[in-house]
């Protein structure tokens, strides 16, 4: 970080309300909070809040994203980390042993160690979770395709808000026909991934509208979420029509998974991946609608 940028960043924080606002969003995690909730928590009038949010965003300290009628704001941890690194650069000529071991110093060191960096954002150990209501069809296809096509860049899991208890046999039949392995297929609850000791989930895809609309558990690590709505093939009748519906769902899922894996994920932040995943789905939906019989 250059000294001019550091000065501008510090100037943006040099006001009580903005400093309180930024600290609140640091605590809120990567998902951030809607503007209205920020104002309520801090007791800041809407007009004043808008000014403070704009100032912090222009300084690069906040990320803003629209979700429906609301705008969510989140702290940009990479900028915060860069500012901390600038302030402590060449501290004691590189001798960290000369720093006083106060509680504040220990806390600062821990927080800097926990901050996401460009290296930490790489998909080594990157986990995605595909959610559906029953976890028997579309989410199973997504889990298998991500693991098969990912080439070790990420690990995929799937779960359901109301798991069916068994995987749809036509889903497994479809995967087998395309040579996509699915070891130990299991319909399971999304609560497994919110429990202590569960794999840390970095990104969530919802693939049915009902799961997207439900209140999810509080996921450890506050993963980013996007929605890839795909029509449910599980209840199509008769059986031959169901097989056709599963094939269509497979093709749609494969298209989205391949496009997502083609992204430079190693160099992207969570918000960038979410925006790209949403864009890919929108483009795929438009093409599929245009070519539908």
Pick out its properties.
Rossmann fold, elongated, alpha/beta, Arc Repressor Mutant, subunit A, 11 helices, 293 residues, three-stranded antiparallel β-sheet, 7 strands, four-stranded parallel β-sheet
Commentary on this structure:
This protein has helices spanning 3-13, 16-28, 35-42, 46-58, 77-87, 103-114, 138-149, 169-177, 209-213, 239-261, 270-291, and strands at 33-34, 62-67, 70-75, 126-132, 154-160, 203-206, 224-227. With 293 residues, it is an alpha/beta fold. The protein folds into two domains: 3-114, Arc Repressor Mutant, subunit A; 126-291, Response regulator (Rossmann fold). It has a four-stranded parallel β-sheet. It has a three-stranded antiparallel β-sheet with strand order 1-3-2.
What's the short version?
With 293 residues, the protein is an alpha/beta fold. The chain has 11 helices and 7 strands.
